[in-house]
TrEMBL record:
Keyword Signal attributed: yes
Keyword Signal included in the entry's annotation: yes
Keywords, in A-Z order: Signal
Segments forming domain Endonuclease/exonuclease/phosphatase: 52-231
Name of the protein described by the UniProt record: Endonuclease/exonuclease/phosphatase domain-containing protein
Organism: Kribbella sancticallisti
Signal peptide: 1-24
Length: 256
């Protein structure tokens, strides 16, 4: 009888271990298909302290907007923390250096492109050249992701009262460009992240077919629905004075 009891206990322990292994395997698979994106608007600073985000969050990609003057500093930061800087130069348009991407070493860069807008936009200083949005196609642990870094013209979909609503055409063009890119790449997850210069509710209204993860007032991340991607977490960081939208988004997707 005592032997029989011991045998039952052994079988129960083995069964529990087996359940643990079964549970751990899907969890590990989900971890392999996870993407972490950080964003930050650095307000034109030459030496934005983004290294703290790379060090603490270790995102696969960081999207930095208003990075016009930060190329040298970001190159040094990338080398220090194990990242690669991808930032187009002014030969691709005056706004091309405005968004910089920091991509973690070990992440496979499969392709790069630049979405070029044609509509000018306005701010208090006057008329500005059309926006440029860098796109990177990356492989993270075997999963392919398309990531679009954005900084939409100020004013939101209305165009902005500050500039007499002149930016409406440029904002709508930017929205259509992101939507068209997603439509033209129908298989892998497509994520747009950065400064949308619009509230999360405005983005939900103007981006049907996209999941919207609210980051800050105008800084968010969007993922095309029906691609197996979802947002798992949003982490908000303290932004230095004058800067905004320092956010980390955690996404996961069904295995390829």
């Amino acid at each position: 009888m005592q032997y029989a009891r011991r045998r039952v206990v052994q079988l129960v322990v083995l069964a529990l271990l087996a359940v643990g292994v079964a549970i751990a395997a899907p969890a590990a698979a989900a971890e392999r298909d996870r993407l972490k994106i950080s964003i930050a608007n650095v307000a034109g600073a030459a030496k934005p302290p983004v290294g703290v985000i790379l060090d603490t969050q270790k995102p696969h990609i960081m999207v930095i907007s208003e990075a016009y003057r930060a190329r040298a500093h970001l190159s040094e930061v990338a080398d220090r923390y194990g990242y690669r800087l991808r930032q187009y130069g002014p030969d691709q348009g005056a706004e091309a250096p405005g968004i910089a991407l920091l991509i973690k070493n070990g992440v496979t860069i499969k392709d790069r492109s630049l979405l070029k807008m044609s509509e000018p936009w306005w701010w208090k200083s006057g008329k500005r050249d059309p926006r440029r949005y860098p796109v990177v196609v990356v492989g993270v642990n075997g999963k392919t992701w398309h990531v679009v870094g954005v900084h939409f013209p100020p004013g939101g979909p209305s165009g902005g009262v500050v500039v007499d609503y002149k930016n409406r055409a440029a904002w709508i063009e930017s929205r259509k460009a992101v939507q068209a890119y997603a439509a033209n790449h129908p298989n892998a997850p497509v994520v747009a992240a950065g400064d949308f210069n619009a509230t999360a509710d405005e983005c939900r209204s103007h981006f049907p077919g996209f999941l919207v993860a609210q980051g800050a007032k105008v800084d968010h991340a969007l993922a095309k629905k029906d691609r197996g991607a979802r947002f798992d977490d949003v982490i908000r960081h303290d932004a230095p004075n004058g800067m905004h939208g320092w956010i980390t988004f955690k996404l996961s997707a069904t295995p390829s």
